[in-house]
Amino acid sequence: DEQETGKTDQEGPSEILNDSSTERRATNPKKRVRKVLSFCSIANGISQEEFKEIDRKTRGHWKKTSGLSPPPSILEFGSKLPAEWIEPSESIVLEIKSRSLDNTETNMQKYATNCTLYGGYCRRIRYDKDWTECYTLDELYENRRTKSNPSHQVENLQLQLVPKKRKRALVSDPFQQSREQKPISGVFAGLFFYVLSDYINSVTGVRITRSELNDVIVKHGGKLIHNVILKRHCIGDVRLIGCKLTRECRALIDRGYDILHPRWIMDCTAYNKLLPIEPSYCFSVSGKLRAVARRRVDCFGDSFENDISESKLSSLQKSQPDLLSTRQADKSFELQIIPLFLFSNRIVYIPRSKIGPKDEMLLEMKIRLFGGKITDQQSLSNLIIIPYADPIWRGDCLEEVHSQINEHVKASNSDTVPRIPRIVTPEWVDHSISENCQ
């Protein structure tokens, strides 16, 4: 059965000792706490971020055991003494989960509770818990008595058969729960999995626990193993899943095992097929496997074989700073070749002509492409383009333009001479672009 408890610090997880009378439990827990007893040592399941958070909150409160022994009235240890200790009121509460209690003779003397946890690992930091709300010695004794009393076990089993209790009983044993589930697909058929850590979805921020990952694997035809070192299965059919560099994960990496990211599990179930291993799915793998994975994606990390979703494409773009710098370099190169601001000081007026809409649109596009502006009012322009090649049409257009300029000059009340726009032909525009000057 799974055992859950809290602890006050990383090196010396502990029990809160209180009065054995159950009638006193209704009182304020801070008033009934007498001392804290060492219970277990936990290193697995704590991520680098959680280590940093523990260090930040407890920094400056640790005392070296060699220089100052912990007061027996507050802290009590067994034969195993930590290198440093901390006042319980300054400690951090962690939620610990384990397979069972360890009552072996070798471990009984190490901790003040005369027992410890077997296979314990940290699930999370409990910010909502005070150190006085940790697992108590009464609860530990009650738990041990329950496990050692067969009649009490039968009584509890009957209570678990009640529909209201059934869900809680199943959650307490994720491996038993996985065995009872029926596969809904065969995506992972023939493969064996060992999950090392939880997983936090980078897009939604939702935390997926180890037990939930195990459920997903079993639902899609995979099988779980609980000891990789025994090598009871073909090593080529085993997939180790994890994304936290815990002590167990580091030990497996040192032994030469490849660790895949839990994202591979979720994507396989999303696409309903076994996806090839790509660099984004490699948490810690050998150089040979990583080389194979890199050949399955392009230079930006986009897969040659797998479909890509919008969220994955967005995260791919954010993770490619080189792509942004390449775009900026391309823009700089274009600015050197194409004079984008050649006509930036020109407001162009083109009389409506009979040359055809295509030629007129092409002329306007050239002006706008190189920074110029187009206006429909001749009085606002500083450049007039006569679009006709025929001498008769061009002459008629020039007379009309000159007439409007004269009217504008006569209507001006300013003491200064109004600015006369420059009159050119479309050939002048092409020549200016080729010479990169007006």
What's this entry about, in short?
This protein is α/β, with parallel strands linked by helices. It has helices spanning 29-32, 48-58, 105-108, 137-148, 150-160, 163-171, 174-180, 210-219, 247-254, 262-271, 287-294, 310-318, 321-337, 357-369, 391-411, 426-435, and strands spanning 3-7, 14-17, 35-38, 62-64, 75-76, 84-86, 94-98, 100-102, 116-118, 121-125, 192-195, 199-200, 207-208, 223-224, 238-241, 259-260, 282-284, 347-349, 373-375, 383-385, 422-424. It starts with a strand and ends with a helix.
Q: Give the biggest sheet.
A: 5 strands, mixed
Unreliable residue stretches: 1-15, 17-31, 169-178
C-alpha-based Rg, rounded: 38 Å
Physical arrangement of strands within the biggest beta sheet: 14-11-15-16-17
Q: What is the CATH-assigned architecture of the largest domain?
A: Beta Barrel
Organism: Saccharomyces bayanus (Yeast)
GO cellular component, one term: DNA ligase IV complex
Keywords: DNA recombination
Pfam family, one: BRCT_2
